[in-house]
Amino acid sequence: MQKTIFPEGFLWGGATAANQCEGAWNVDGKGMSVADCSRYKGDLDPSDYKGHHTISSKDIEEAMESNDTARYPKRHGIDFYHRYIEDLDLFQEMGFKCLRVSIQWTRIYPSGMEETPNESGLKYYEDLFRAMQKRGIEPLVTLHHYEMPLYLSNHYDGWYQREVVDLFLKFCKTVYRRYNGLVKYWLTFNEIDSAFRHPFTTAGLVEDRYPEEKWEEIVYQSIHNQFVASALATKYLHEMIPGAQMGCMITRTLTYPENCHPQNMLLALKENRKNFYYSDVQVRGEYPSHIKKEWKRNKIHIVFGEEDEKILKDYPVDFISFSYYMSRVSTIDDTNKEQVSGNLTSGVKNPYLETSEWNWQIDPTGLCISLIELYDRYDKPLFIVENGLGSTDRIEADGSIQDDYRIRYYKDHIQAIADAIEEGVEVMGYTPWGCIDLVSMSTCQMTKRYGFIYVDLDDEGNGSYDRKKKKSFEWYKEVIATNGSHFNND
C-alpha cells in the first residue's frame, strides 16, 4: 500500500452539466436555451470540430420550430431531471464527496427577462441539493454552463450586449437567496475561454449576424462582459452567503513546442500565455498587457464601463478550477505533419503520446505540469473539475463492462495529481467528467462515453435509460474510500 498524500477533506467526486444530463427540456416552465439547438450530426466526421460547433441563424430557426428530441439529444439527456435520486444513490455508493452540477438559467428565468423566477425550477434544484446534502455529497454548482437563454441570444446578441450582465446577476442573486445553506462552492462561467472555439454555445453569439471584420472585437467584448459579470457574481456571493467560495473555470490548453527551436519555444510560450489571460483577469483582477497590445495592433475597441477595472480588481475569485483533457503541440511549420483533434481544435501530433479512440492525445504528465504552473502563477487553491476519457464501451456476454482502459487513464492522471501535491501544489478536489454517461457536448453523441456508470441509450435516442455499473465503478469507489492510497494498485 502506498502512502496517502491526498489531503484530508479532498473532494473526490464527479462532474456533469445540466444541459447534457437533465433532459426535460420543456418541462415545468423551462425555457429554450442555446443547448436545445445543438443537433446530432451523425454524418459528420467527429474530428470536424468547427463543423460540430457552428450554428447558423437558419439552424436556430429550425430548432425553434422543432419539438424533436432525437435530432437534438441534449433535450432528452439521460433524464437526470426525473432520475436524479437513483443516480445520487449510485454516487453515494461510490463514496462521492462532491458532485459538480449546473443550474439551467432557463429553469429559473425561462427567457432571462421575467420579473419573477419560476418556482418549479427553483424547487427542483432545492430538492436536488437537499438530496445531495442527505447523502453527504457537497454540490459544486456552475452558474453558466453552456445554457444561456435562447431569447437573450436572439434579442440581445448574447453576451455582446451589456444589459445581459444585469439579467445574469438577477439570476445569481435569486439562486444565492434560495440555496443559502445548501451550496458552499460555486463556479461562474464554464470554460470562459471557449468563446472563440464555440461562440454560440458559450456566449450566445451567431457569427452570420455580424460583419466579418468586427467578429473578433465582438467576441472579446462578450468575454469582457462575462468577466465583469463574474466579478460581480463573486461580490454578491460573498455578501449574501458568508463563507461561500467562488471559482473561475478555464480550459487548460497546455501547449508544448514541437522542439527546442527558439521560434517554436516562443510560439508555445505565447499560446500558453494567451490561455492564462482568462484566469489572469479573474484571479489577478486586471488585463495582461499583451492582450491590450493585441487589441491595439488589431484595432479592437472594447467598451469598458466607468467602474469595470475597479470591479475586476476588487472581486477576484477564491480558487481556480479547470478542465484538462489533453495537451497540444505548436510549431512554426506543420507542413506534411500528422494532425490530431480534440476538444480544443486540431494540431500537430505529439509522437510521445497515445491517442484516444476520438483522436485526443492522452497526456497525464501534462496535468501535473498544469497544476504546478497554475499554482506557481497564482498561489491559490486549484480544483480539477473535468478530466476523463471518452470511449465506446461494450457490454460483455455476462452483462459486465470491462473498461480497464478507463481505469488505466484515471490511474495515470490521479498519479499526476499526487505528483503535483508532492511538489507543494494545493489541490481541493477532483471531479472526473461525465461520471455517469451523458450526451457529449461537442458531437451530441451517447456512444462517446465517459462514465463509471453506463446509461442504456444510443446516439439516436433509443434505449431504456437503465443504469449499469462498469468495472471502473468499483475501482473508483476504492480510490475514494482510501483517499487515493489505493489508486495505483492492480
Automatic annotation (TrEMBL):
Q: Which SUPFAM superfamilies match?
A: (Trans)glycosidases
> From the UniProt record, which GO molecular function terms apply?
beta-glucosidase activity
Which keywords, in A-to-Z order, does the entry hold?
Glycosidase, Hydrolase
Name the InterPro entries for this protein: GH, GH_1_N_CS, Glyco_hydro_1, Glyco_hydro_1_AS
Q: Which residues form the active site?
A: E386
Pfam families for this protein: Glyco_hydro_1
The source's superkingdom equals Bacteria
Q: Which GO terms describe its biological process?
A: carbohydrate catabolic process
**Which GO cellular component terms are attached?**
cytosol
Protein family according to the UniProt entry:
Belongs to the glycosyl hydrolase 1 family.
Protein name as annotated = Beta-glucosidase
Q: Which species does this protein come from? A: Lacrimispora algidixylanolytica
